[in-house]
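Sequence of Alpha-L-fucosidase (Jaculus jaculus).
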Amino acid sequence: MRVLELPPPPPLLLLLLALPCAARRPARYDPTWGSLDARPLPAWFHGAKFGVFIHWGVFSVPSFGSEWFWWYWQKEQRPKFVEFMKNNYPPGFKYEDFGPLFTAKFFNAKQWASILQASGAKYVVLTSKHHEGFPLWGSKHSWNWNAVDVGPKRDIVKELEVAVRNGTDLRFGLYYSLFEWFHPLFLEDASSSFREQRFPAAKTWPELYELVNTYRPEVLWSDGDGGAPDGYWNSTGFLAWLYNDSPVRDTVVTNDRWGAGSICKHGGFYTCSDRYNPGHLLPHKWENCMTIDKSSWGYRRDANICDYLTIEELVKQLVQTVACGGNLLMNIGPTLDGIISPIFEERLRQMGTWLKVNGEAIYESDPWRSQNDTATPDVWYTSNPKEKLVYATFLKWPISGKLLLGEPKATPEATEVKLLGHGQPLTWTLSKPTGIKIQLPPLTPHQLPCEWGWSLVLTRVT
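Predicted 3D structure, token representation.
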């Protein structure tokens, strides 16, 4: 591979270089995975636990099958996508013709921010550019194929950034696809087995610098390596700048998708795969990025109600993920005109309602010595080591009114058990051979603190 020089440093870096040596921030990380992987993950991310992913772009116009619509229609020529175009659009219609139809007519960033706040999420990640190559900001490196020049004629990224930062307590993050399916320069590089770096030099590097310096994302969610190694993308060089000299150097978190072979191996937090949920504790911080729509990340007009996860299923995903040390990034897909459809809004608000009661067991928690209970299924543990508290979240209310927990080691004189949202201490007894049996309060459905899962807080247990 012929390694090209990086584009000129951004203005902020030039300013830093002009400062006296004593005033400069010393570089801490070298452009090597060994050095970059040693960077501690900013603490806010571990405590946040829950974020919302937003997949929005030109693919929201056909809104059929998948956000990979262009690839499935043009490259793979899957019959149902070819037939869809034949039945709904005139001959000769090109994917680029969807661009002007991506209107975002009803996009209201403040309304989105209000819904995001109501979800209980602590961060949001917007797709600034997906594999189709359409930036949701006025990219200087994507003339006439971005949201400012075509379609909305608006800087979507800026509008949402301002609304989120001024109207919520969420951290603002951006997804960015390194490659683009049909960009001529990328296709040329791929044909040379990535010995040349025309595409990253002309597109990826300058756009990443532009995104970070302009919008200051505290989550930079990379994706889409196109089969090219991290050396082709110069990922370590960019991350060294991000961690040492960028305006978000102290707070930014990144994932593990920085080139073929880097996933679940290098970077900040691991994603390992889409919808990754191992069900056991991992030694490295990880994130479960998943979708409310079981089949697609973008909005689908052809989705049925059974295609959406229920709130019970989503709460289980959150509880299980957090118990195993991960964060949950739950995805929604707005419509072409900027509406968060009622099914997505309902799920977000339901999650927020649940977290208002049970957030103590989720936010800022740590995994406990056991992730789930051995005696009763669907019971997951978290802990607050500073306060010496253990939380047991159970997803099925027992018909008998008695809940057996096989893991906690309790003492009759010291241990106390409470139900979050109820307040009064509960009666419990030691169970044989181990654990405790808890008498739950006799509540009617209207008296329950929440509907889809309940958290017990246990004091002085081991």
